[in-house]
């Protein structure tokens, strides 16, 4: 990523590497010892928690729109720059929200992955 | 402008370009695995554009604008949901599914739960969803070619079916990736330029959207009625009818009174310039009703309709087989983000066109074929050679929309059938593609009635009630068992598929039991999705002893980052 002159790396997923030097914790994760299993469970819980929290943000904001409209029908009639609020929100403003949440998710999920790799690789 | 040579040549050019790019891609595909998932060597930019190009179907290109023209603000939920579905996919499914190494949902089911029976059930569900999704694409093609060229309605499905089958049989998925990426940009151009042109026109002649009056025609207009329709007439001045009105034969007679009237097929309606347009009964007539939220999309219980659309579209995308296959070719989750951005950009324009269609081609609201709004609005509003050019551009975009999505769906059907029913060779893939492409043609001609976006929304509802719970629970819950998954698929699939079949066949009368049966059949997701999840969970708890033994190993494979050991290469620190 940092240097351009390196040839592009091919990543082949799910192919086991045989005979390479392994950090012990890595072996634990791969061979599903108790320690490895606990590590994986922690990772799954962290990623699921992240996804659920961000989904809750979207559901609460987006789900609130029709409910708010049902309770306060006049709210949609407010105009901003000559465009009615209900159209402005649904046709324009929702999309940056969706993109923003997605971006946040990618950043935090990659952070969680880095943390996990850090823990697993930390052993000498 | 029926049969304009310019439009015809634009349609031809889009189709030829699709085939040509497909043929170019063929030279690059070599082995069976190349054929199916393009060996993961497709670049991320190409992939994001290809995903979007494949996803933006007839429902997005034509249907969204049509629904907005017809029903107004509540129809905006469809494009929002179609985009938000990608977020759901990104949050809950994309990365673990990619790490699992499963190409398709049946592959995933077998990998996760090791059951051949579950695999077969999942395969069946995949084929059903794809067929439900293909039928409205073919119908859209029929409508478009009929509107643009004046040919009989069965020509469209045959032409699009033929091109798509040829393309998929010849190229597999690699060529399709290039085709799809090209199609996204074609579709965006084809819808953005006319929309912006109409926006300019709107600002120069200071039209008004959403006033208290029903839409009015600008010049003398005649409208032919092809199937019986009930319309709401708010002001009969300037309208004359030749044909049957409320069962009586009339010849160039005015409509006697405002209110609801039935127009028989074969009737011709003549509207003088400035006359208020009748609209299909059940759709908002006055502009103030149209522009306000909360009116729903015809029928009762509008709030339930909106919530059910949200459930179906937000959760349905992650169960769409052709979308999932494409995600496997993605190197990372960032492509999903790019897709959200590309879709957000695209949907601005159908929204504009839908609103302007009500202003410039209100006569579409009489017959209810508002799906043609995108095709007709630019030519009708602008006129002259410029208008013809815009109409031709839109026509090219429409054909691109049908071809792109249909190709993706057909690849999924062919992949599922060839690996699970046949023997999985390239030859089997081709045979399955021919069969899978032909089946929806008679179905698309036999059924009709629903708007394109609503038909596609129903396919989303089936996906959200079946494959979505299978994937989400399979990825995040260790307790899922094969028996539980089969039960969930069967219950969710039967409920939603029955509802869709009834809805497409004509639906239930609005007066039965306060309208609830009608609205639940028309918008099943809010009921069927929770039931499918609950069935899967309860049935899994009851068969807890049959949890697969290697579930810890499977979870490690799905969730441990690729760079860690399980991949072939170790990423250097800071790399």
Strand and helix map with partners:
The complex is a heterodimer of chains A (124) and B (575).
Chain A: H1 24-31, H2 34-71, E1 79-80, E2 83-84, H3 85-121
Antiparallel strand pairs in A: 1-2
Helix pairs in contact in A: 1-2, 2-3
Chain B: H1 5-26, H2 32-37, H3 44-55, H4 58-71, H5 77-92, H6 94-100, H7 105-113, H8 116-149, H9 155-205, E1 221-224, E2 229-233, E3 239-245, E4 248-254, E5 259-263, E6 268-271, E7 279-280, H10 287-291, H11 302-316, H12 321-328, H13 334-360, H14 364-367, H15 373-382, H16 384-420, H17 426-438, H18 440-446, H19 452-465, H20 467-476, H21 482-505, H22 516-522, H23 525-542, H24 551-559
Antiparallel strand pairs in B: 1-6, 2-5, 2-7, 3-4, 3-6
Helix pairs in contact in B: 1-9, 1-16, 3-9, 3-12, 3-13, 4-13, 4-16, 4-19, 5-11, 5-13, 6-24, 7-8, 7-20, 8-9, 8-16, 8-18, 8-19, 8-21, 9-13, 9-15, 9-16, 9-17, 11-19, 11-23, 12-16, 13-15, 15-16, 16-17, 19-21, 19-23, 21-22, 21-23
């Amino acid at each position: 990523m940092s240097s351009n002159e390196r040839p592009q790396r091919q990543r082949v997923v799910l192919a086991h590497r045989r005979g390479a030097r392994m950090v012990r914790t890595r072996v634990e994760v791969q061979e599903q010892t108790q320690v490895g299993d606990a590590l994986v469970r922690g990772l799954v819980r962290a990623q699921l928690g992240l996804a659920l929290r961000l989904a809750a943000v979207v559901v609460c904001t987006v789900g609130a729109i029709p409910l708010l409209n049902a309770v306060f029908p006049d709210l949609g009639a407010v105009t901003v720059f000559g465009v009615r609020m209900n159209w402005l929100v649904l046709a324009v403003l929702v999309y940056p929200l969706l993109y923003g949440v997605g971006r946040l998710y990618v950043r935090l999920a990659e952070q969680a992955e880095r943390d996990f790799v850090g823990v697993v690789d930390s052993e000498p | 402008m029926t049969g304009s040579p310019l439009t015809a040549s634009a349609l031809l050019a889009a189709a030829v370009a699709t085939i040509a790019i497909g043929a170019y891609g063929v030279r690059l595909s070599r082995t069976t695995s190349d054929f199916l998932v393009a060996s993961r060597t497709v670049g991320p930019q190409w992939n994001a554009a290809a995903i979007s190009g494949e996803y933006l179907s007839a429902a997005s290109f034509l249907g969204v604008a049509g629904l907005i023209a017809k029903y107004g603000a509540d129809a905006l939920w469809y494009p929002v949901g179609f985009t938000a579905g990608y977020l759901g996919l990104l949050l809950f499914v994309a990365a673990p599914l990619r790490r699992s190494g499963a190409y398709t949902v049946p592959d995933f089911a077998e990998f996760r739960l090791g059951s051949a029976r579950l695999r077969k059930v999942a395969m069946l569900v995949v084929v059903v969803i794809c067929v439900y999704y293909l039928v409205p694409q073919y119908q859209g093609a029929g409508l478009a070619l009929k509107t643009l060229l004046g040919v009989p309605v069965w020509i469209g499905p045959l032409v699009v079916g033929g091109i798509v089958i040829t393309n998929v049989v010849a190229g597999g998925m690699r060529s399709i990736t290039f085709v799809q990426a090209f199609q996204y940009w074609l579709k965006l151009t084809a819808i953005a330029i006319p929309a912006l042109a109409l926006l300019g026109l709107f600002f120069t002649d200071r039209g008004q959207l959403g006033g208290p009056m029903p839409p009015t025609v600008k010049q003398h207009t005649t409208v032919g009625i092809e199937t019986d329709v009930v319309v709401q007439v708010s002001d009969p001045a300037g309208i004359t009818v030749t044909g049957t009105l409320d069962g009586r034969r009339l010849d160039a007679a005015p409509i006697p009174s405002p209110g609801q009237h039935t127009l028989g097929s074969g009737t011709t309606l003549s509207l003088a310039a400035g006359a208020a347009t009748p609209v299909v009964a059940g759709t908002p007539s006055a502009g103030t009703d149209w522009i306000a939220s909360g009116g729903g999309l015809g029928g009762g219980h509008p709030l339930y309709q909106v919530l059910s659309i949200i459930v179906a579209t937000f959760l349905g995308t992650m169960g769409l087989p052709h979308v999932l296959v494409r995600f496997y070719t993605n190197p990372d989750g960032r492509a999903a983000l790019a897709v959200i951005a590309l879709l957000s950009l695209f949907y601005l324009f159908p929204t504009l066109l839908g609103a302007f269609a009500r202003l410039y081609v209100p006569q579409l609201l009489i017959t209810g074929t508002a799906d043609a709004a995108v095709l007709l609005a630019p030519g009708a509003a602008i006129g002259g050679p410029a208008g013809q050019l815009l109409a031709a551009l839109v026509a090219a975009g429409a054909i691109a929309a049908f071809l792109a999505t249909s190709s993706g769906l057909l690849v999924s059907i062919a992949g599922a059938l060839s690996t699970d029913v046949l023997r999985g060779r390239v030859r089997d893939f081709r045979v399955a593609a021919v069969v899978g492409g032909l089946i929806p043609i008679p179905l698309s001609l036999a059924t009709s009635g629903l708007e394109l976006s609503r038909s596609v929304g129903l396919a989303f509802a089936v996906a959200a009630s079946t494959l979505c719970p299978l994937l989400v629970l399979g990825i995040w819950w260790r307790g899922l068992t094969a028996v539980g998954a089969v039960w969930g698929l069967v219950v969710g699939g039967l409920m939603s598929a029955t509802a869709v079949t009834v809805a497409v066949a004509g639906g239930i009368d609005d007066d039965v039991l306060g309208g609830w049966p009608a609205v639940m059949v028309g918008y099943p997701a809010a009921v069927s999705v929770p039931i499918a999840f609950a069935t899967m969970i309860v049935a899994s708890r009851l068969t807890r002893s049959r949890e697969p033994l290697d579930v810890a190993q499977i979870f490690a494979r799905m969730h441990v980052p690729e760079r860690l050991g399980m991949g072939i290469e170790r990423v250097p620190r800071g790399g």
